Amino acid sequence: MDSVPSYPRPEGVYEISHEKLDLRPDSEVDYDLVQPRPVTGEKNIWFFWHRGFAHMHPYTRRTVRAWHRRFSKQGWVVRVLDREPGSPLNVANFLDVHDPDMFPKAFLDGTIGGDYAPQHTSDLVRWPLLVKYGGVYADVGMIQIGDLDGAWNVTVGDPNSPYDVFSYNAGGVDGRGLTNYFLASGRDNPLFQRCQKLFLELWAADGGRTSTEGMHSSPLLNGVPMMGGELSFEEDGKTYGPEECSKLLTDYIIQGQVMAMVMGLVDEDDGWNGPKYVSEHVFATDYMVGSQLINEMTAWNGPRQFELMSLPLPKDGDAETADQKLAREIVEACLAKSFGFKLAHGLILKILGDTLGSLWRKHEGADDVPETYGHWLRHGTVYWCQNELPPRLEFKEAPAVKIGPLLKEGRLGPGANGGVPGFEAKK
Question: Which InterPro entries has this protein been placed in (predicted)?
Fold first, then answer.
């Protein structure tokens, strides 16, 4: 790589030996990323971009490179799968895209539609990849900060560890809201196997769906609170109130509903007790500090985040401005406390407006300007490692949401419609 800027290293992190990093030029790293390597173990980092790595936005390519630079020498293989005809990284070269137990008809036919077809296509590949191969599935907008290898080695990667799943969780210790933008497990994980079955059943409804629209109303999800709370937005002169917004958001993040149901399901005939499994086998860290800290520190104001991350650091002898102080505090907090940072895109833009991710997309290269706070943050995600691993939310066995078969209506358990703070149910 080119000369490395000298940035102040926050407390709580140490410098990684350069021998443990892949610091070759971007072109050489990119060459490796587009060459399909055979799967030989579970230390896989899976991404999906429908048109492939070469057609990703520059800021997301930088994110994927950072994963590779940081973890490839520790045995991790980064792959960005796609749906491009003839591509060696086409999903079809890793999964049987004609298997109805793996993909719905719309995926096989290429008829997935709606405003967010690429996002829903990516949703459909993450559980099959994890179930077949194991590893980590992350959205391309997921910036890794913490020690992935260290966390893996004491959870999923340790055969003596009780933890089979590693992720973020919304709602604190009482919530059951795993985020689908970062999921880690070994092969044949029983939680994700059941999630996949339920997900496919939702897609198969009404003779086969071509989008997730309306999935929030499926009786198979009865008892799981919808997302959105009191959120609303306007578009093209029309106001979408809390109820409409909740339905849209729930359909968009329907995988979250699926995971919540499986985690809350007790199916004695199948030998599945989701609440007990979560309490004993899921290692989840809080999603707000763990992956959304910059949003919390700026009241989810994307333009403000872009402004702060674009600021230059003070020159020698210059006094730090109030905005530079806030930008510094954000970078220091994220690098020391957050396991990652999820850049938001998709439907959330209609609700919140521009995000840091959407603005980095619009202003190409803005995240890669040396001596800015955004570049400092980027630098730290490659060259530094946190002293401590993320803390686990100490789950207790929660009341069941549903009692009965996974793919049939059952009776609601005492935990039905309990709600998740920040993702309140609509009564």
Answer: AfumC-like_glycosyl_Trfase (IPR008441), Nucleotide-diphossugar_trans (IPR029044)
Task: Return the exposure string of 40-62: e unless at least 16 CB atoms fall within 10 Å of the residue's CB, then b.
Answer: eebbbbbbbbbebbeebbebbbb
For residue 304, give both structure tokens: 């403000």
Q: With left for phi above 0 and alpha for psi between -120 and 50, is residue 214 left, alpha or beta? A: left
How many angstroms separate the CA atoms of 142 and 150, rounded?
18
**pLDDT value for 355:** 96
The predicted pLDDT at position 159 comes to 96
Residue 218 one-letter amino acid: S
What is the Cα–Cα distance from 46 to 183, expressed in whole angstroms? 10
Burial class for 365, CB neighbours closer than 10 Å (0-12, 13-18, 19+): exposed
Listed as ranges, residues in the chain with pLDDT below 50 are 418-427
Q: So what's the pLDDT on residue 424?
A: 33
pLDDT of residue 422: 36
Nearest of 104, 108, 44 to residue 80 by alpha carbon: 44
Residue 65 CB neighbour total at 10 angstroms: 20
Round to whole Å and give the CA distance between 290 and 170.
10
Report the greatest alpha carbon distance in the chain.
Answer: 71
- Chain segment 300-353, per-residue pLDDT in tens: 999 999 999 999 999 988 999 999 999 999 999 999 999 999 999 888 888 889
Give the whole-angstrom CA distance, residue 357 versus residue 367.
Answer: 10
134 Cβ contact partners less than 8 Å away, ≥ 6 residues apart: 41, 42, 44, 156, 185, 186, 187, 189
**Sequence letter at residue 43:** K
Whole-angstrom distance, CA of residue 313 vs CA of residue 321: 10
DSSP string covering 200-237:
HHHHHGGG--SS-TTGGG-GGGTTSPPS-TT--EEETT
- Concatenating the DSSP letter of every residue in 314-348 gives PPTTPPPPHHHHHHHHHHHHHHHH-SEEE---TTH
pTM, rounded to two decimals:
0.95
> From CA 137, how far away is CA 290, in angstroms rounded?
16
What stretches of 270-321 show up as alpha helix (H) in DSSP? 274-281, 287-291, 293-296, 302-310
Beta strands in 151-216 (DSSP E): 165-170, 177-185
Contact 26, 368 (CB under 8 A): no
Amino acid at 36: P
Summarised one tens digit per residue, pLDDT across range 152-189 is 999 999 999 999 999 999 999 999 999 999 999 999 99
Q: How far apart are CA 254 and CA 151, in angstroms?
A: 27
